[in-house]
Design a protein that fits this description.
By secondary structure, the chain is an all-alpha fold. Helices cover 75% and strands 0% of the residues. This is EamA family transporter.
Length: 336
């Protein structure tokens, strides 16, 4: 699933658990590759759903299971990770289980609702709405639940994102924008907001975890949680185009999932989260280009205009958050 909006919320890296930080140029290359590969997720899901006969829940299950297996293999086989795991205290069981469950549920909703949105309203619109709504919902939740300040720039960017979403939804024709698909995309964004805000909370309280381990356990929870639902929906693909289905699912699990996450977290060691957020706006652009050129989807002028406003507002929101983070903290007020 598209995951570019993870950039602003990744916790501090555990340098004992990962390899040496790359150069800035290599970090930018990693993040750019990640954005482009994530941009292919929606189109790959569309083709896989058509060739396999699977539903979005089953497809999400297989993505989660495959991603978990590959990331687990990396963790078990990488020498640096084995040494870090032996030298790191386990900590109270509850402090490990609760984050795994919260982040796993958020990741599950984020992915399953996204695939359902793509199936309902198309790759381009589903991707744009999800990626536009996700950071806005996360910013709003951070303001309401954690007292984070958006500032004037942040409020204007959020308002612009809402306006862009309205133009996209209300201006698009019935053949390009479907309300059910938009609602699913918003649900996907809410799943993102859940684990984003919770990750921020953990970081603020000094409980930030290794992001590789967080991703691994989140995919594990996703796999377990979706197994009964995927079984009810239909767990196995039909055999008519089995070769095509297996090829598409192999690509989905390896490139935009396991490889992309690994490169993204590595790149974030050398690239600021805000810079990564702006770079990963390549994802909806890539998704839209693929949808129009390869899948034959049609974008109206209103859809293009709404997309431009929405993505521009997301970039402005990221810059506003960067300025807010760089500003000195206000002096404490007596009596509060």
């Amino acid at each position: 699933m598209s995951d570019s909006t993870l950039a602003p919320s990744c916790p501090a890296q555990d340098n004992s658990a990962i390899s040496a930080a790359p150069s800035a140029a290599r970090g930018l290359l990693y993040v750019t590759f990640t954005a482009l590969s994530w941009g292919t997720t929606g189109a790959t899901a569309t083709l896989a759903l058509a060739s396999s006969g699977l539903g979005p829940v089953a497809l999400t299950f297989w993505r989660g299971a495959g991603g978990f297996a590959l990331l687990l293999a990396v963790r078990l086989l990488a020498p640096s990770r084995r040494r870090a795991r032996r030298g790191r205290a386990a900590g109270p069981l509850r402090r490990r289980i609760v984050p795994a469950l919260v982040n796993g549920v958020g990741l599950t909703v984020f992915n399953a609702a996204f695939f359902a949105a793509v199936e309902a309203t198309g790759t381009a619109v589903g991707t744009v709405v999800t990626l536009g709504a996700a950071p806005v919902l996360a910013a709003a939740a951070g303001r309401l639940l954690m007292g984070e300040r958006l500032g004037t720039g942040g409020r204007l960017a959020t308002g612009g994102a809402i306006a862009g979403l309205a133009v996209l939804v209300l201006g698009g024709g019935a053949g390009t924008v479907r309300p059910a698909g938009v609602a699913l995309a918003l649900l996907s964004g809410a799943g993102y907001a859940l684990f984003t805000v919770y990750t921020r909370h953990l970081g603020r309280t000094g409980r930030a975890a290794d992001p590789f381990g967080t991703t691994l356990t989140s995919f594990g929870v996703c796999t377990v949680a979706l197994l009964p639902l995927a079984a009810a929906e239909g767990l196995l693909p039909h055999t008519r185009e089995l070769g095509v289905t297996l090829g598409l699912m192999a690509y989905l699990v390896t490139v935009p999932t396991a490889l992309a996450y690994a490169l993204f977290f590595t790149g974030l060691q050398a690239v600021r989260a805000t810079t990564a957020t702006v770079i990963t706006l390549l994802e909806p652009v890539t998704a839209a280009v693929i949808a129009v050129t390869l899948l034959g989807e049609r974008l109206t002028a209103a859809t293009v205009a709404g997309t431009a406003v929405l993505m521009g507002s997301v970039a402005a929101l990221a810059l506003a958050e960067a300025r807010s983070a760089a500003a000195p903290a206000p002096a404490p007020v007596s009596g509060r």
